Structure formats: structure tokens, C-alpha cells
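Good morning C.,

I know you're traveling, so I'll keep this short. The sequence:
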Amino acid sequence: MKKYIAEFLGTFLLTFICCGAASYTGGYKGFLGVVGIALIFGLTLTALCYTVGEISGSHVNPAVSVAMYVTGRMSVTDFAGYVIAQFLGGIAAGFALFGLTLTFNQETVTSYATYGYNLQGLGTNGYGDAASFVGINAIGAAIVEIILTFIFVWVVLSVTAKKELANIAGLIIGGTLTAVHIFGICITGTSVNPARSFGPALAAFVCGKDSSALGQGWLFVLAPLVGGILAAFVYVLLQAPKKAVVKEEFEEEA
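The C-alpha cells, ready to paste straight into the viewer:
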């Protein structure tokens, strides 16, 4: 149960801090900018790797968990528990983010909106008219999300399998998340994490702020999962040890 609670809290914190920073500073063209937002995501995940990582492995992302399951590094029971906890964490963070916007000075919100800064966007993802900058279509958005998630999850699988990288794995993982965000923020807002995308999109819809994010949400749930599964298959094909060795390692970790 502790690891499920850790995944809930980790996903909540990742979504709340990172999506909040992106939203409350005016989005990709606001005060933080693309690099600033990307660093917030990367630094937050790095911190989580060295805190909840000791409890649950700090997946805080269904795309990571599905890859761990496909590679035989977690049971179906844990996979289900992790994914449920992650989505609940993302949803809780989405509504917490919206609740905080209710305390904002509405004159300030309206004033910034006239210049194109949405301080109540909740960090949602989108494509087409809802895309951050380039107006990419659904096919392009799906391709971007699959590729970025593939890169991120492949790195996670690789570094967490090497005991000699245990001390710096969090830095590598956080740095990779930063890199994929720098590339993807102006295209889709960068998801690579279904729970982080679904929670704010659901909150925006339920609270009447934005229905498009939830309507497009299927892509930001499905594409990262596909990317995670592809990363798992490539990892197994190119890098994974024999099943007996994998089983032995997980018995030691347990």
C-alpha cells in the first residue's frame, strides 16, 4: 500500500507543481518560457526520484509503469495499483490547481488574457486550434508524443537496470524529461504522461473552463502509452538481460 500512496503523492506533486508553474506564469510564452517550464518538470521529477523513488521507484507516469510491466519488472497487481494511483494523483492535482485559481485577482487574470497569457489554463495539452504554437494536427501530435515518450521511457528502463547508475539515475531521468519538454512544449505542451494530462483536462472540463482539452485527452493518454510499450519492446530486444536474471534482480529488490 505504501508504494501506491507514494505514486499518488508523486504524481500529484509532479502535476501540481509543474502544470501550475506553466499555467500561473502565462504558459510557454509567459514569464518562465519554454526552457523554464521544461526545467520545472525535470527538476521536480529528479527530486521525486530521490524521495518516493525508494518506496515505489517513482514511476509517477502510467507510460513508465506499462513499460515496466511489459518488460516483466512489475506484477499485474502492482501495475493496476500504480496506474490507478497515478491517475487519481493527476486528477486531484488538476482540481487543486483549479481551486487555487479561484483565489486569483480576476482583474489581473483578465488583464493578462488580453495579451494572450492564460493564467488559468491548468497546463493542459492540445493540438490543432488548442495547440500551444504551431497548430499541429492530431496525427502529428500523436507522432510527437509517441516519439518523446519512447525516448523518455527507454532512458528510464535503461538507467534503472544498471546498479552502477543508481546514484545518478534520478539526474539522468530528470534531464531527459527536461529535454523532451524543451522540444515538445511549443508543439503539444508535452504530455509523455497520461496522468499528468488527464487530471488538469478533467478539472478544466468539470469546472467549465475548457472542454477541448478533455475532448483531445484521448490522444495524450493513448500516445504516451504506445510510446512506453514501444520503448519496452526495444529495450527487451536490445538491452534486457535474460529472464532468469531479471527475475533474480526483482526478487532481491522485493
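Safe travels,
E.
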